[in-house]
Specification:
The complex is a heterodimer of chains A (148) and B (404). Helices cover 0% and strands 43% of the residues of chain A. With 148 residues, chain A is an all-beta fold. Chain A has a domain at 3-22 and 57-139. In chain A, strands 5-6-7-9-8 form a 5-stranded mixed beta barrel. Chain A has a 3-stranded antiparallel sheet with strand order 3-2-4, with no helix packed on it. Chain B has 404 residues and is α/β, with parallel strands linked by helices. Chain B has 2 domains: 3-119 and 215-240, Thiolase/Chalcone synthase (Peroxisomal Thiolase, Chain A, domain 1), CATH 3.40.47; 133-209 and 242-403, Thiolase/Chalcone synthase (Peroxisomal Thiolase, Chain A, domain 1, 3-Layer(aba) Sandwich). Chain B has helices spanning 24-39, 64-72, 88-101, 133-141, 145-160, 164-178, 192-196, 225-231, 280-291, 308-317, 326-331, 348-352, 356-372; strands at residues 7-18, 48-52, 78-82, 107-114, 200-202, 205-206, 215-223, 240-245, 300-303, 385-392, 396-403. In chain B, the strands form 2 sheets. A 9-stranded mixed sheet of chain B has the order 3-2-4-7-1-8-11-10-9, sandwiched between helices. In chain B, strands 5-6 form a two-stranded antiparallel sheet. In chain B, a hairpin with a 3-residue loop joins β10 and β11 (396-403). The radius of gyration of chain B is 20 Å and the shape is globular. In chain B, 60% of the residues are buried. The chains are: A mainly beta (148), B alpha/beta (404). Chains A and B meet through β3, β5, β6 and β7 of A and α4, α5 and β5 of B.
Chain lengths: 148, 404
């Protein structure tokens, strides 16, 4: 039995009882979101609040832009051997009015992506070590059949 | 322009860019000695030395000013060392200028130099750093620097119809500009076909369109206007710095920036939100306002072409044209040598590669030589006003306006 471990603590839920989501902060005073969550300060220069709630961010968004990584990124990235290229996307979340980056799920190439396409957040293996799978959030294209 | 914001540039010097693999101090020292000789001054004349830090050498991030001062020989000159990532050179120039304009010194030396590893830039230092976004973006996403440049490039293609050939043409132009530049690392013509057949690194950017990492060093001798006149027997200095912009972004910055995972949220912002209003345009507009000029006054610009596509973004960000018009400017030859506003007449990062703490200083050195009319083989004829533009990781603006 392999153990599922988030590659970073507190940035996303695993969705064990529902769907996974990114965890951001929302300023109690002005409503400004941040990802990863801010605990010390609000990014709004006109806001001095230090009260934040942790919130799940929208699970769907639209691609602001995208690319791929044809060459193996250097450490601290833990690459599979042999290396398999992957795509990355910057995704606009309408409700939070921010753009969040992430890898795109395996098997997707840049030819499958367009600016404006809708994608959905999933949790997937980033790398495996020993008996553990280290998990991270990724964006998964929504195929035509799933839309709506 | 009145004296109260201007300083004189009496000397400029550089060590050729390359992958020499020698200590960074050697490059900085060579550049400093060239700048001093160019100014007709000696190290003993320097009252303030302003270093742009390297994070890859010595005691990272802390030592450049004093390291260069020691290499030149201790004289008791006052010192400052600063780090602002790619904007470090402009920050060091800004520190020297503030000392001069405040009347605290008359003559300052600015130096930056770097020795770089091979391949992608990666976070410096070992161990897990799970509170450092620069470490985390590599670990959690494998997001190298070209990842971010490629996001901007793809967006240009989608929004404005930029083509792979447009990006390649930027590289072809800059390669031609750098042919005769003795400080450039890459000096050779390339064709569009060669660019488009080089390996894809981060779609749509190819190897020949992405800035390399280089060794190099650059230095400037900066003085008060009064000192320059005395030193020049009463003549006005040939080249002055009229503005230095080291602005931070304005909230909400809605363009994804290295090394971040997300943009600011615009929820609390009262204005119209569109994911696409970013930091870069504010950098030169602050410099223009301080210098009392506009982009229409420019004869040349040195901008940070970390990728060939990014140079097109800069055309719009520094005000050479409106949004979506950069490709036309390029195709019309406006930004080539011989055009109305040559961009990167030095050859840019395309021909240099980046030596982080030296690069913003090198941009200014190039402008100095252009304004003096001594940029042999790549001279912008009759150049009177020049601007540099650049941005450093985490939100460091960098722009310098010079004139003759």
């Amino acid at each position: 039995m392999r153990t599922r471990v988030p590659a970073v603590e507190g940035w996303f839920t695993l969705g064990d009882d529902g769907a996974p989501a990114l965890l951001g902060s929302r300023c109690a005073a002005c409503g400004t979101y941040a990802f990863p969550a801010e605990a010390q300060f609000c990014r709004n220069p006109d806001c001095v609040s230090q009260e934040f709630e942790t919130v799940e961010l929208s699970r769907r968004g639209r691609i602001w832009s995208y690319t791929d990584a044809r060459y193996k990124p250097p450490p601290p990235y833990v690459a599979a051997d042999p290396y398999v290229p992957f795509c990355l996307a910057a995704v606009e979340l309408a409700a939070e009015k921010l753009v969040v980056m992430g890898q795109v799920t395996a098997g997707v190439t840049v030819d499958d992506l367009k600016v404006g396409d809708e994608v959905e957040l999933v949790v997937d293996t980033l790398y495996a070590e020993g008996d553990s799978d280290y998990l991270v959030w990724k964006w998964q294209p929504i195929s035509a059949g799933q839309e709506g | 322009m009145p004296d109260d914001k201007r300083i004189a540039v009496l000397g400029a010097g550089m060590h050729p860019w390359g992958k020499w693999g020698r200590p960074f101090v050697e490059y900085g020292l060579a550049a400093a000695r060239d700048a001093l000789a160019d100014a007709g001054l000696t190290w003993r004349d320097i009252q303030f030395v302003s270093g742009a830090d390297t994070i890859r050498n010595g005691y990272p991030g802390f030592v450049s000013g004093a390291t260069f001062a020691q290499a030149l020989g201790w004289t008791g000159a006052r010192v400052s060392s600063c780090y602002a990532a790619c904007a470090s050179g402009a920050a060091a120039i800004g520190n020297a200028r503030a000392q001069i304009l405040a009347g605290l010194c008359d003559v300052a030396l600015v130096v930056g130099a770097d020795t770089t590893p091979k391949g992608f830039f990666a976070p410096v230092g070992g161990g897990d750093r799970k509170d450092d976004p620069d470490w985390l973006r590599f670990h959690l996403m494998g997001a190298t620097n070209p990842t971010y440049f490629a996001l901007y490039a793809r967006r240009r293609m989608d929004r404005f119809g930029a083509t792979e050939e447009d990006f390649a043409q930027v590289k072809v132009k800059n390669a031609r500009h750098g042919l005769a530049n003795p400080y450039a690392r890459y000096r050779g013509e390339v064709t569009v076909e060669e660019v488009l057949s080089s390996p894809m690194v981060a779609d749509p950017l190819r190897l020949l369109e992405i800035c390399a990492t280089s060794d190099g060093g650059a230095a400037l001798v900066l003085t008060s206007m009064d000192f320059a006149r005395r030193h020049g027997g009463g003549a006005e200095p040939a080249v002055t710095i009229n503005a230095v912009s080291t602005v931070t972004p304005s909230f909400p910055n809605t363009v994804i920036e290295m090394p971040n995972f997300s943009t600011d949220s615009a929820v609390a912002y009262g204005g119209e939100w569109e994911a696409g209003t970013g930091f870069r345009p504010s950098i030169t507009s602050a410099a223009y306002a301080e210098a009392g000029i506009g982009p229409e006054d420019l004869d040349l610009a040195e901008v940070y072409d970390l990728s060939a596509a990014l140079e097109l973004d800069w055309y719009e960000d520094i005000g050479l044209c409106g949004e979506g018009e950069a490709e036309k400017l390029l195709r019309d030859g406006v930004t080539s040598l011989g055009g109305r506003v040559p961009v990167n007449p030095s050859g840019g990062l395309s021909c240099f590669g980046e030596a982080i703490p030296a690069q913003a200083i090198a941009q200014v050195c190039e402008c100095v030589w252009q304004l003096r009319g001594t940029a042999q083989g790549h001279q912008v004829e009759g150049a009177r006003v020049a601007v540099t533009a650049n941005q450093g990781l985490f939100g460091h603006g960098s722009s310098v306006v010079l004139s003759r």
